[in-house]
Write a structure and sequence with these properties.
The protein is α/β, with parallel strands linked by helices. It contains 11 helices and 6 strands. It has 2 domains: 127 residues, Rossmann fold, CATH 3.40.50; 73 residues, Winged helix-like DNA-binding domain superfamily/Winged helix DNA-binding domain (Arc Repressor Mutant, subunit A, Orthogonal Bundle). The chain has a 6-stranded parallel β-sheet with strand order 2-1-3-4-5-6, sandwiched between helices. Pfam families: GerE, Response_reg.
Length: 215
């Protein structure tokens, strides 16, 4: 399901997804239409614009939150024309899964967009690299994060994008074993032990995102 008020982008997304063999069950131009389509078609994934009518502020986000309240298993990929840092910081709140946040320009990079969509649909998280880059420039002190090496911070930033160890290894041109060692070191420096009843990867990313100033 696609929620986007720009008709060209909305229909372009639908054509792209159908060309990839995906079933687009509904498209919507506004939040009320989006939620009605959700109840009628029961989609697996919703692609939602942050800003929708009538005020073009946060209607899309509020519709996405309501959609997840109605169907907690729904995967949601949010699109935005700008970096909405406050939303990006909250994206992984509570260890949320099946959520993604991409800048609209990423849609034009078809392979990256589809990779993020499939990652979210499979239960993962996808955060736009540009959002992560901007968050990196606004960090507040965190004793654990301060202990990380430059390479470990690179690995953690890629984790924040939602990449797994194999993808991180490919991005950094290192072995997967090297990435695994970096991840273990990150957990150790952030005092995250295997005995913790939390997802250590999600917790590490949350520490990273929460070390940023909200917009």
């Amino acid at each position: 399901m696609i929620g986007e008020d720009d008709p060209l982008l909305r229909e372009g997304l639908a054509l792209l997804l159908r060309a990839e063999g995906l079933d687009v069950v509904a498209t919507a131009a506004g939040p009320e239409e989006l939620l009605a389509a959700l109840d009628e078609h029961l989609p697996d994934v919703a692609i939602v614009d942050v800003r929708m009518p009538p005020t073009h502020t946060d209607e899309g986000i509020r519709a996405a939150v309501e959609a997840r309240r109605r169907r907690p298993e729904l995967a949601v990929l949010v699109l935005s024309a700008y970096v909405e840092q406050a939303f990006a910081t909250d994206l992984l709140g509570g260890g949320a899964r099946r959520l993604g946040y991409l800048l609209k320009e990423r849609v034009g990079r078809v392979e990256e967009f589809l990779d993020a969509l499939h990652r979210v649909a499979a239960g993962g998280t996808a955060v736009d690299p540009e959002v992560v880059a901007q968050l990196l420039t606004r960090t507040r002190p965190d004793a654990g994060l301060d202990r990380l090496s430059a390479r470990e911070r690179e690995v953690l930033a890629l984790m924040a994008e939602g990449l797994g160890n194999t993808a991180i290894a490919g991005r950094l041109v290192v072995t997967e074993g090297a990435v695994h060692k970096h991840v273990r070191s990150i957990f150790a420096k952030l005092d995250l032990t295997p005995a913790d009843e939390v997802d250590r990867r999600v917790t590490a990313v949350l520490r990273f995102l929460r070390s940023t100033d909200a917009r």
